[in-house]
């Protein structure tokens, strides 16, 4: 029973990371109706920036906060410089731009920081918390940090004028322009917020998977599975999907197919959801009159 509980709690910790990335994917999809394939590489590059600050002697939480700010600026800059010029281009063109951005960030990280695997420190103590061997301090801390981030994002979009303006710009750009909302800048801020959320996920997962330019490959796949399972147009569904995928990954990997094939869980979930319920568990099926 203790081993089972450990798998569940560990799954919730990694599931929170998947939920953060899935939320970032959903935010950009709701704003642009496109999927940002470079979301994982943006989080990876931001994590390298945090590692650089830590190597320079910065306190962990100062480096953490500075990285979130830098990731936000990076997200805004990418939207303004790279995405904005092709926003009205054919979908295939934009997809190629996203894939190109993924490869550029991956290669740039390898060129600057090398492809040598590096350890990334955890801000939490080692050993079991409160004598509980079913969870580590880092897993418990990752759950708390993730929940705090998700709560702050919810409060921002629900109760602040800027958050409400960003939601309006994403849902109905034409009407938003009529009431004076600067839709272009709202979308850019959405990109920045998504990048900041992704950076948080990257810094939480780096102590587990170690730091290298390809560290987010498997993580972003699980995040895609979470977003599709919960509903690619549902932020709350993406968060729920992240925790579900995290727990399923651990349980299926530990008791059914083994750890070597755990990545196939995400692929099976993606295919299964697209076949059975393409809109996701919490997603909406949109019907249009033609």
Automatic annotation (TrEMBL):
Coiled-coil portions: none
Alphabetically ordered keywords of this record: Amino-acid transport, Cell membrane, Membrane, Transmembrane, Transmembrane helix, Transport
Pfam families (UniProt xref): BPD_transp_2
The keyword Cytoplasm is annotated on this UniProt entry: no
One GO BP: amino acid transport
Protein's UniProt keywords contain Transmembrane helix: yes
Entry membrane topology: Multi-pass membrane protein
CDD domains according to UniProt: TM_PBP1_LivH_like (cd06582)
Chief subcellular location: membrane
InterPro entries (UniProt xref): ABC_transp_permease, BCAA_transport_permease
Cellular component terms per the entry's GO annotation: plasma membrane
Localization of this protein: Cell membrane
TM segment ranges: 6-27, 60-78, 90-114, 134-157, 185-209, 215-232, 239-257, 263-287
Molecular-function GO term, any one: transmembrane transporter activity
Family: Belongs to the binding-protein-dependent transport system permease family. LivHM subfamily.
Protein name: Branched-chain amino acid ABC transporter permease
Organism listed in the record: Ramlibacter agri
């Amino acid at each position: 029973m203790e081993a089972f509980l450990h798998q569940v709690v560990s799954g919730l910790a990694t599931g929170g990371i998947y939920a953060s990335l899935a939320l970032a994917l959903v935010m950009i999809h709701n704003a642009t109706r496109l999927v940002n394939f470079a979301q994982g590489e943006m989080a990876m590059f931001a994590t390298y920036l945090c590692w650089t600050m830590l190597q320079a002697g910065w306190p962990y939480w100062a480096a953490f906060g500075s990285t979130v700010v830098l990731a936000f600026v990076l997200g805004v800059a990418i939207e303004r410089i790279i995405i904005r010029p092709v926003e009205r281009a054919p979908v295939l063109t934009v997809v190629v731009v996203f894939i190109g951005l993924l490869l550029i960030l991956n290669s740039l990280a390898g060129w600057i920081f090398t492809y040598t695997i590096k350890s990334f420190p955890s801000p939490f103590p080692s050993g079991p918390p409160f004598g509980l061997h079913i969870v580590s301090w880092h897993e418990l801390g990752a759950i708390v940090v993730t929940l705090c981030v998700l709560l702050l994002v919810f409060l921002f979009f629900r109760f602040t004028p800027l958050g409400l303006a960003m939601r309006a710009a994403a849902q109905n750009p034409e009407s938003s322009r009529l009431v004076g909302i600067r839709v272009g800048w709202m979308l850019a801020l959405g990109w920045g917020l998504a990048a900041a959320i992704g950076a948080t996920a990257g810094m939480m997962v780096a102590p587990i998977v170690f730091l290298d330019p390809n560290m987010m490959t498997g993580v972003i796949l699980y995040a895609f599975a979470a977003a599709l399972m919960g509903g690619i147009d549902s932020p709350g569904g993406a968060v729920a999907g992240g925790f579900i995928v995290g727990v399923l990954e651990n349980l299926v990997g530990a008791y059914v197919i083994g750890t070597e094939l755990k990545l196939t869980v995400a692929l099976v979930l993606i295919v299964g959801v697209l076949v059975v319920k393409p809109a996701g568990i919490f997603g909406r099926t949109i019907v249009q009159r033609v």
